[in-house]
């Protein structure tokens, strides 16, 4: 009876380090035969169409065990799970999930007399999937993907520091001498937004404003739900959007939190646009709590328009 280990990552910026930790070190699998998809194999591709999983099924023999670190490494939704379980049952293969929502379940349990896949297994899978367990695991993967992709582009997560008070005069002097905002941000290891804040009254749009032009948009402070902020931190944002998010002051809300984000109405609308996937996409139903958080933020952003009109 062979132990067949399946690994997959969704982007070429990811590594299998975490899966290795769960499967190679913690699980103690004896004589594993590893099948690892090419980096960037999307979770949207049906498991039965993935090259390495196909090789695994061809290699497998009855009573072998398939090992995966978490369910979302293999499947994306309820339909995928049930399709895979049918094939594993047909080939008399066991499935062992070592972490996540399904790790305590024997998903390939058979009736002792008939040998059929237990109907209770399918019921439990459907119930857990409907309750959002798989979607939460999948969202964790997508967030991880986004963070790794951002790091690969040189963007670090977390709140970026402002220009220290004792450095402000030096920053302003260097800017007046012709040093660029990007160069100053590198020099002081802060975001461009932090430099812009330090030299705001020296910027061309401030000092050379056309008297007949409409007044520039002023920053507006809104409390952004924590679930929205978590999603945006893994998204690709421009400098102004990233600076507004990273410089937000965290306000605790019961067991959660809400960054107090100051940005122009236009930037708030742009951030809101990035949150659209929280309402759900094809093959990835919305998580109710995340959808509610996005709509709360949408209501607050839309209120800015109403305030502007009055």
Automatic annotation (TrEMBL):
Domain Resolvase/invertase-type recombinase catalytic, first and last residues per copy: 2-154
Pfam families xrefs: Resolvase
InterPro entries: Resolv_N, Resolvase-like_N_sf
Superkingdom: Bacteria
SUPFAM superfamilies on file: Resolvase-like
Designated name of the protein: Recombinase family protein
Source organism per UniProt: Streptomyces rugosispiralis
């Amino acid at each position: 009876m062979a132990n067949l280990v399946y690994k997959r990552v969704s982007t070429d910026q990811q590594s299998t380090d975490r899966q290795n930790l769960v499967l190679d070190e913690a699980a103690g699998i004896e004589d594993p035969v590893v099948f690892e998809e090419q980096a960037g194999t999307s979770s949207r591709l049906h498991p039965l169409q993935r090259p390495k999983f196909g090789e695994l099924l061809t290699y497998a023999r009855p009573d072998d065990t398939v090992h995966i670190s978490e369910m979302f490494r293999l499947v994306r939704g309820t339909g995928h799970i049930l399709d895979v379980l049918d094939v594993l049952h047909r080939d008399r293969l066991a499935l062992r999930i070592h972490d996540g929502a399904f790790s305590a379940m024997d998903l390939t349990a058979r009736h002792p007399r008939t040998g059929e896949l237990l109907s209770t297994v399918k019921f439990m899978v459907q119930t857990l999937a409907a309750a959002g367990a798989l979607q939460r695991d999948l969202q964790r993967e997508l967030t991880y993907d986004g963070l790794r992709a951002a790091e690969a582009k040189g963007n670090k997560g977390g709140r970026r520091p402002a220009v220290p008070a004792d450095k402000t005069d030096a920053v302003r002097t260097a800017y007046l001498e012709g040093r660029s905002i990007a160069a100053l941000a590198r020099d002081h290891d802060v975001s461009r937004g932090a430099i812009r804040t330090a030299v705001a009254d020296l910027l061309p749009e401030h000092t050379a404003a056309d008297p007949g032009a409409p007044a520039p948009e002023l920053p507006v402070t809104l409390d952004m739900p924590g679930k929205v902020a978590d999603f945006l931190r893994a998204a690709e944002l421009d400098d102004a959007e990233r600076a507004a998010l990273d410089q937000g002051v965290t306000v605790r809300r019961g067991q959660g939190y809400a960054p107090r984000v100051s940005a122009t109405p236009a930037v708030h609308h742009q951030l809101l646009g990035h949150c659209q996937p929280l309402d759900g996409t094809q093959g990835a139903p919305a998580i109710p709590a995340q959808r509610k958080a996005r709509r709360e933020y949408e209501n607050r952003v839309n209120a800015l328009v109403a305030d502007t009109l009055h």
